[in-house]
Design brief:
Number of strands: 30
Largest sheet: 6 strands, mixed
CATH class of the largest domain: Alpha Beta
Bound molecules: FE2/S2 (inorganic) cluster
């Protein structure tokens, strides 16, 4: 009888012959098969699970059977007693030995590098390449004959068990080490960043590492708390940026700092405090401490980026807008006073130019236009719109000052996207009666069960996607003239006698919800949306001109304005150029998704750092034609441009 056996691992297809009695995990390691482990093969973490594929495999020339593994072991019994049964046919690869030929399947959950599927509105899966990994080690105790230092003892154990060598630790790590070793009776879990940088140590076994991805917008801040191993979003939260009290948009915040230079520290402090508060909210939801956060990634426009880091942003307010630093920045999270783990590191994606920041880098990571054959236009809409145009040959980017209207600010009943905010609107073309739905419920306001569905939060206001649909619908229903005036003249009914039209000085407002609270779309709201959409459209046309194209193949709309933007309404408003409607998609908060990708995939950091160097930056403030484009884009949908695809969709009855 042979004293070795052929073992094939799937899905990688890696294979080799191993002596009978070899643990499956060891065989996998020797072949370089991607199997996770935190406990180093002690049957504690359960990360190393595999399944034997049964049957004859002609292509491998072997017959595989679960009987070719050693019987159920004591270690597995112990694991099951503590954690519950394994899925059917699963085994712990560290606790089972090779007894004959095998085809061993490594399920996705047992792989270190795996994919997580993104939400409906997002396009691709995220590959996980963890930057921080946990390693459990059991150390020998010191004695009078062995006075090896705590750190040397740990270094030797990690080298022995994991084949890893550590670089010099930071002070916080050294301060935590003696306590962790003694508290854990010389058994500890160590977090290594980039394979060799020790950043955290805990007594005993620990198997979860946490990170936070943050999108610092001018108006809103969004945070996602993630499990760094699985990539799962454990909790998400958002809030208004408290810097708003120093100015609603970037220019007014920079002007404030010009007048009050001594307040620069205050602006940094308030945004950092807001991030800590958001982190705390997500941690409470996930049942962990803020001090458990080991890694944080940030995206934000150049001014938010500089203020967060405590860098002087004043030069970004005047031509030629030089950045202090455009490369990616990694600093200790402690330097930003965030209150995370003392060893936590903060990564800020690279900026591209004075007006095109780390948020655009996030959009590039999320949407990968550089891998597209199609010519794609991506607009990430916030208080500034980050606009990218290009494909696998060329990429152009600019930033356009849309103002905060698309995020629900500067709108009478506006609010950020949160449960209770109106996000979809339809207006009856004949009676002008509105119907709407709010975030947190799928049911429309004129459907049975609406009141019950929203009982927990009620109708609270209108968010960016809601106001976009409301204004577009008002125009399609004839309530709004092409100029954007709510003159009521073109309304199907006499506005003075229509219960949905409310006299407001010499114009009208449109009553979307009679309350409580009363939600009217006012002339001022419409003007704010017109300014925003004209800025976005003008930026897009500027990039198209620079690239020498009259149309694009595909459009991606992203932003924190709501979960979904209806392509027809965006086009009816004239936010985006004409394009077949089925080629317009929503990507949710693409910059925020980019922050999440950079948090979960160390390799992608290198990719984006290289990619941003290839982006051609277009400065809207320096382009004389931008102003003309802007003025021409104020009417709905546009003063001159034709929208044949929109017309076709409307003629076919889409609304
Ligand atoms: Fe931890 Fe097998 S490696 S249980």
């Amino acid at each position: 009888m042979a004293d070795d056996a052929l073992v094939v691992f799937t899905p990688s297809g890696k294979r080799g012959r191993f002596a009978l009695g070899t643990p499956v995990l060891l065989a996998a390691r020797q072949l370089g098969v991607d199997i996770d482990s935190v406990c180093g093969g002690r049957g504690i973490c359960g990360r190393c699970q595999v399944a034997v594929s049964e049957g004859e495999f002609a292509k491998f020339g072997l017959t595989s059977a679960s009987g070719n593994l050693s019987p159920w072991s004591e270690m597995e019994e112990r694991y099951v007693a503590q954690h519950g049964a394994l899925d059917e046919s699963r085994r712990l690869s560290c606790a089972s030995e090779i007894r004959g030929d095998l085809v061993v399947d490594v399920p996705a959950a047992s792989q270190i590098h795996r994919q997580i599927v993104r939400k409906r509105v997002e396009s691709r899966a995220i590959d996980i390449v963890p930057l921080v990994k946990l390693h459990y080690v059991e150390l020998g105790k010191p004695s009078i004959d062995d006075q090896t230092s705590d750190f040397s003892r740990l270094r030797a154990a990690l080298e022995d068990e994991w084949g890893l060598s550590m670089r010099a630790p930071g002070l916080a790590f050294l301060q935590a080490l003696p306590w962790a070793l003694r508290q854990g009776d010389w058994n500890v879990t160590v977090a290594l960043r980039e394979a060799d940088h020790p950043i955290a140590v805990w007594p005993g076994f620990r198997d979860q590492a946490h990170g936070l991805a943050v999108d610092v917008g001018t108006t809103t801040i969004a945070a996602h708390l993630c499990d760094l191993h699985s990539g799962d979003v454990l909790a998400a939260s958002g809030a208004m940026n408290p810097q708003i009290r120093f100015g609603e948009d970037l220019i007014s915040r920079v002007s404030y700092l010009q007048l009050n230079p001594e307040e620069a520290g205050t602006l940094s402090a308030v945004v950092r405090r807001a991030i800590t508060e958001l982190a705390a909210e997500t941690c409470v939801e996930a049942g962990i401490e803020v001090g458990d956060i080991l890694e944080v990634s940030f995206v934000g426009n150049p001014i938010m980026h500089h203020i967060l880091l405590g860098l002087d942003p004043l030069q970004l307010g005047r031509a030629p807008f030089p950045l202090v630093v455009d490369e990616a920045v990694t600093v200790s999270a402690d330097d930003l006073e965030l209150g995370f783990h003392a060893g936590a590191q903060a990564y800020l994606l690279p900026c591209i130019a004075g007006h095109v920041g780390a948020d655009t880098a996030g959009v590039l990571l999320s949407e990968s236009p550089h891998k597209s054959d199609d010519l794609v236009l991506i607009a990430d809409v916030g208080t500034n719109a980050e606009i990218v145009l290009g494909n696998n040959e060329r990429l152009l980017a600019c930033s356009s000052p849309t103002g905060p209207a698309f995020e629900g600010a500067q709108i009478d009943a506006g609010q950020r996207a949160a449960p209770g905010a109106i996000e979809r609107v339809r207006i009856d073309r004949r009676t002008l009666a509105p119907r709407f739905s709010v975030i947190g419920s799928e049911i429309w306001s004129d459907e049975p069960g609406f009141a019950e569905a929203i009982a927990g939060f009620g109708v609270t206001g209108i968010c960016g996607s809601g106001i976009i649909e409301a204004v577009a619908e008002m125009h399609l229903a004839g309530i709004l003239a092409d100029s954007g005036l709510i003159d009521g003249k073109s309304a199907a009914n006499d506005p003075a006698n229509n219960p949905h039209m409310v006299a407001d000085g010499r114009v009208f407002a449109y009553r979307l919800h009679s309350g409580p609270p009363t939600i009217d779309i006012t002339q001022t709201d419409v003007r704010a949306i017109q300014l925003a959409k004209a800025a976005l459209y003008a930026g897009a046309r500027l990039l198209m001109d620079k690239l020498g194209v009259a149309s694009v193949d595909r459009i991606v709309l992203a932003g924190a304005f709501g979960s979904y933007i209806d392509p027809l309404h965006a086009m009816a408003l004239g936010m985006i150029p004409d394009c077949p409607l089925d080629r317009v998609s929503s990507a949710g908060n693409a910059a925020g998704t980019g922050a999440r990708i950079a948090l979960l995939n160390g390799d992608m950091r290198g990719e984006i750092e290289e990619l941003v160097r290839r982006v051609e930056k277009i400065e809207t403030a320096a382009a004389p034609e931008f102003q003309d484009y802007f003025v021409a884009a104020m009417p709905l949908p546009h003063k001159d441009h034709e929208f044949p695809n929109l017309r076709l969709a409307l003629d076919n009855g889409r609304s």
